[in-house]
Amino acid sequence: xxxxxxxxxxxxxxxxxxxxxxxxxxxxxxxxxxxxxxxxxxxxxxxxxxxxxxxxxxxxxxxxxxxxxxxxxxxxxxxxxxxxxxxxxxxxxxxxxxxxxxxxxxxxxxxxxxxxxxxxxxxxxxxxxxxxxxxxxxxxxxxxxxxxxxxxxxxxxxxxxxxxxxxxxxxxxxxxxxxxxxxxxxxxxxx
Length: 191
What we know:
Elements: H1 9-16, H2 20-23, H3 26-33, E1 40-44, H4 52-58, E2 63-68, H5 71-83, E3 89-93, E4 106-112, H6 121-131, E5 132-143, H7 160-169, E6 173-177, E7 184-190
Parallel strand pairs: 1-2, 1-4, 2-3, 4-5
Antiparallel strand pairs: 5-7, 6-7
């Protein structure tokens, strides 16, 4: 369900809403993953930078690539990074399953609230594996597969077991579940 037209103002407002922090505060995630201060992070499906920009502030020595299929989202990400004086963020327009970066460039690859939108998650996970350094971490943060007032409707949610199977099929090891958020499943795996 790739959304090439998702640049409506209501969607952008939702993506930037501080209310998201009430149920999805990225700082709770970083405390679990514990990235190195000078790591390289790739945020796939970065949108307006909900993950990438706070990470860049918290880790000023890190290099952050915010990637999205929508040129307009990347433009907004770049504008917000410039406004906030974040020179460690680079916006990259990607295709659905490919990012124009070198093999093994990333220490951490994050996909937040994206997995349920993917048509071919296995292909994107293979791309994550390619982008990660040998000891790198992939993280999927997506809506829980339950009726909870926030998750998408049945048919758009992805059960944790399915995500685990997809990670395993792409060669990720040490897959762990982290109970960080009320409405989200959080899985990490090692390259």
